[in-house]
Amino acid sequence: MKKKGSFFKDLQKAFNTGVSFMLPAVVVGGIFLAVSLATGETTGAGLEVTNPFMKNLNDLGDAGFAMMIPLLSGYIANSLAGKPALVPAMILGYIANNPIGQGEVETGFLGAMIMGVATGYFVRWVKTWKVPATIRTIMPILIVPILTTFILGVVYIYIIAVPIGAAMDWLVDVLSSLQGGSAIVLGMLLGAMTAIDMGGPINKTATAFTIALMAENVYEPNGAHRIAVAVPPLAMAISTFIDRKKYTEADRNLGLSTFFMGLIGITEGAIPFAVKDIKRVLPAIVIGSAVAGGLGMVNGVEALVPHGGLVILPVVNGKLWFTIAMFIGVFVSVAILHFTKPNIETIEDK
């Protein structure tokens, strides 16, 4: 029993460490993207930034978000096994957050967390090997990083990614079977898919499905999806505003930038909160997003561009229900968090 408790304590510490190192990238990326996209013009391709300076700012924001997930994975592993685990986990976190393999699968932050933990425990095991003194000196900088990246990279690409790709294909078939059927069920499913991995394969499947329908002049599913993308970051931000005792000082400070990310539909703004308290945060934002998506779909909201958040309101058909559905979803998530998240009695941010 003690050993089991120690394992979960190690994981919690590792996740908190990963989040603490990831936070600056989230803030920098989110704020730069929010500022630049707020100046963009709505086109058929989404929000297009035309000002040269703002385009550069947008690129800086993209770079911050590109670093976010590798940092999370890397410092989860670093917490578990020290410096030799850092680079392999960053590489594997990058792989998890980008298309790879025959099916070009992405697993997003959930995949990166898994690879960070796997790297940490694999490297911890390798460090117990008894090797000659001449080899021991090159273990941390040569043998451990190469061996870890190769073995876990192959496992991820050929064992983990392949079934996920097949599952995503099945999910598209399920969504297609609902199209033209129950609007509220399709909307709720799209909303839940949007929030469950926040940029991972399930979210990307919902995006691809709605964009494909847009090409056929069917815009309601995209409306449900684009309402839902704003719910997780807005819900987490508002929760930090009104339930301050439930969050650390770092979390509360993140709330403001997360709020702006929600306004422009950057779902990833909620990732740091989900990593630190996945068993409470993830159900709350999934349920809220499902409610929002269902309300948007059943009321015929149409989003005419492949982007989300209140910033696209000028190119939405059904503006009132777009806004109402979004804020009902946010309210549901915030209410769930209010009743499920405990207060933090002593806050120690170092």
Automatic annotation (TrEMBL):
Domain PTS EIIC type-2: residue ranges: 11-350
Tagged with keyword Transport: yes
A GO term from the CC aspect: plasma membrane
Membrane topology, record value: Multi-pass membrane protein
Taxonomy, superkingdom: Bacteria
Coarse class of the protein's main subcellular location: membrane
Residue ranges crossing the lipid bilayer per the database entry: 21-40, 60-78, 107-126, 138-161, 181-202, 254-274, 281-300, 320-340
Compartments where located: Cell inner membrane
Alphabetical UniProt keywords: Cell membrane, Membrane, Phosphotransferase system, Sugar transport, Transferase, Transmembrane, Transmembrane helix, Transport
Record-level GO BP terms: phosphoenolpyruvate-dependent sugar phosphotransferase system
Molecular function via GO: carbohydrate:proton symporter activity; protein-N(PI)-phosphohistidine-sugar phosphotransferase activity; protein-phosphocysteine-sugar phosphotransferase activity
InterPro entries in the cross-refs: Bacterial_PTS_Sugar_Transport, PTS_EIIC, PTS_EIIC_2, PTS_IIC_fruc
PROSITE patterns per UniProt: PTS_EIIC_TYPE_2 (PS51104)
Pfam families per record: PTS_EIIC
NCBIfam families per the UniProt record, alphabetical: PTS_IIC_fructo
Protein name, as recorded: Phosphotransferase system, EIIC
Organism of origin: Tetragenococcus halophilus subsp. halophilus
